[in-house]
Design brief:
Arc Repressor Mutant, subunit A, two-stranded antiparallel ribbon, mainly alpha
């Protein structure tokens, strides 16, 4: 393994993550949402029901961060909660009809953005990149 190449790859992944988060914040702003809002909604789309701790585990962030995000989305009417038969103090969180529609629209808009972003990337390169990133992600989990 070339340590310099591994470092350069890691550096690029970090920059790409930040650039894509910035891009997401920019196009989500018109809907009054953030990249964090989008991430929580994605875990619940289309019909998943999860507790805040379950979302935090999947999102790999603190429960408090998810709770703040969920509270904001509940206030906007994009999420709803229901009783959790497994745990009385930790309700299940789900997308409301409005939230489901909003996320479907987000996904449609993203498809167009991603088509443009990946326009000059060969499918074979994308496949190799996906395999490599999956391997790294699995090792870290």
């Amino acid at each position: 393994m070339d340590r310099n190449r591994a470092y350069e790859t890691t550096w690029l992944i970090r920059r790409l993550f930040r650039a894509m988060a910035s891009m997401a914040d920019e196009y989500l702003q018109s809907a009054g949402l953030t990249a964090a809002d989008r991430a929580v909604m994605e875990f619940l789309f289309p019909d998943n029901k999860l507790t805040v701790p379950e979302i935090a585990t999947r999102y790999q962030v603190s429960r408090q961060h998810v709770q703040v995000t969920v509270n904001g989305l509940l206030q906007k009417g994009l999420l709803e909660h229901e009783a959790n038969p497994r745990h009385k103090r930790s309700p299940l969180i789900a997308l409301s009809d409005l939230g489901r529609e909003a996320f479907a629209e987000i996904r449609n808009n993203e498809t167009e953005l991603l088509d443009r972003l990946f326009d000059n990337v060969a499918d074979s390169d994308l496949l190799t990149t996906t395999r490599t990133l999956r391997t790294l992600y699995d090792q870290l989990r």
